[in-house]
Amino acid sequence: MALTVSLALFAGIIVLFLLRTGYLRLWPALAAALFGFTLASTGVAPTITSTINSVAGWISSIG
């Protein structure tokens, strides 16, 4: 759970930074967020979650 919250916070900070600097426009950002919410309700969501957890575990084992 802590990884999910920190990953979501980190992604949110990146999106806000990209919106403020002009590299990401508002409508594409909203479309990407809508796609993420839609993707989270599909059957592929557990696979994505396990992949993110595996990558995070791999990164934490390096340091």
State the helical fraction.
Answer: over 70%
Q: What proportion of the residues form beta strands (DSSP E)?
A: under 5%
Low-confidence stretches: none
The quaternary structure here is: single chain
Number of strands: 0
Shape: flat
Give the termini distance in whole angstroms: 21 Å
Series of H and E elements: HHH
Q: Major β-sheet, in short?
A: none
Core attributes:
0% strand, 63 residues, mainly alpha, flat
Tell me what you see in this structure.
By secondary structure, this protein is mostly helical. Helix content is 84%, strand content 0%. It has 3 helices and no strands. The longest helix is centred in the first third of the chain and has 20 residues. The radius of gyration is 14 Å and the shape is flat. The two termini are 21 Å apart. The mean pLDDT is 84.
Tell me briefly what this model is.
The chain is mainly α. The protein has three helices and no strands.
How do the strands and helices of this protein lay out in sequence?
Layout: H1 2-21, H2 26-40, H3 45-62
